Amino acid sequence: MHHVEPLVLLFVFVATLVILANRWAVPYPVLLVLGGLALSFVPWLPVIRLDPNLVLFFFLPPLLYPAALFTSWRDFRRNLRAILFLAIGLVLLTATVVAWVAHSFIDGLPWAAAFALGAIVSPPDAVAAEAILKRLRVPARIQTVLSGESLVNDATALVAYQFAVAAMVTGQFSLGAATLHFILVGLGGVGLGLLVGIIILWVQRRLDDPPSPTPSPHPASSRGRCPRAAMPHRLPPPRERGFA
Questions:
Q1: Residue 198 contacts by C-beta under 8 Å, 6 or more apart in sequence?
Q2: Burial of 8 (0-12, 13-18, 19+ CB in 10 A)
Q3: Three-state SS across 122-180?
Q4: Residues 114 and 99 sit within 8 Å (Cβ to Cβ)
Q5: Quick check: 117 and 102 in contact, CB under 8 A?
Q6: 50/238 Cα distance (integer angstroms)
Q7: What are 115-161's pLDDT values in tens digits?
Q8: Which residues, in sequence order, are CB contacts of 201 under 8 Å at separation 6+?
Q9: How far apart are CA 194 and CA 206, in angstroms?
Q10: Which of 15, 36, 50, 99 fits a disulfide with 118 by CB distance 3.0 to 4.6 angstroms?
Q11: Is 217 helix (H, G, I), strand (E, B) or coil?
């Protein structure tokens, strides 16, 4: 229970940063990163350790679910080649560059640990990408590619991290085994995701007010016209109302 108070204060700090970001018209991930960096320099803060499985199975799914729900899957399939190129190629390239920089500037850091660090920081966050893209005027195709890439890049980063840790522990690395493991993780993730999606769709159809991927239309549209159902009934002419 001695970690409850710091966690509550941390949540209050995060909520305050989000409120300030909305008031200052700044993407809230920017303030959250700066706030986290500022907290890392405070020496007297207690060390809070979270179980990685707790974060992976309970914190990340609620964050990724809205991003996946509001994604246009027709545009996702149309830009699948560019999305996979960024989700695989760019993530591995970023991890390699980060590993090279860390190995060059940190004395005594082995290559395996450097690649583990690169795999941790290489995939962009889906929620952060959505929050930033909403405030930028970018073409719809670029927004689709970046949003889709942020949803599927975790598989590449997780496989790279696992093999970097294994190489750091055992001192061995096999490119063929890593490639095979990545293919199995990708296919297994797609299959499991489809199964969970079918179950969630079945549950949503039985809810009274399920979440909708498109916002409900406002009675008055942006063009100044009202839908037929929202328009007031016209009164009949004066002769039909009994007036002369």
A1: none
A2: exposed
A3: CCCCHHHHHHHHCCCCCCHHHHHHHHHHHHHHHHHHHHHHHHHHHHHHHCCCCHHHHHH
A4: yes
A5: yes
A6: 74
A7: 999 998 888 776 777 777 777 777 888 888 888 888 888 878 888 88
A8: none
A9: 19
A10: 99
A11: coil
End-to-end Cα spacing for the chain:
82
CA torsion sign for 36, 71, 185, 160 is negative
**Radius of gyration in angstroms for the set of CA atoms belonging to the chain, rounded to a whole number:** 25
The dihedral over CA atoms of 191, 196, 199, 201, expressed in degrees to the nearest 10, equals: -100
* Paired tokens of 110: 């082995």
Q: How far is residue 35 CA from its own chain's centroid?
A: 19
Of the chain, the percentage scoring pLDDT greater than 70 comes to 83
Average pLDDT, the chain: 78
Domain spans of the chain, in order of start: 10-49, 57-205
Residue 5's pLDDT is 77
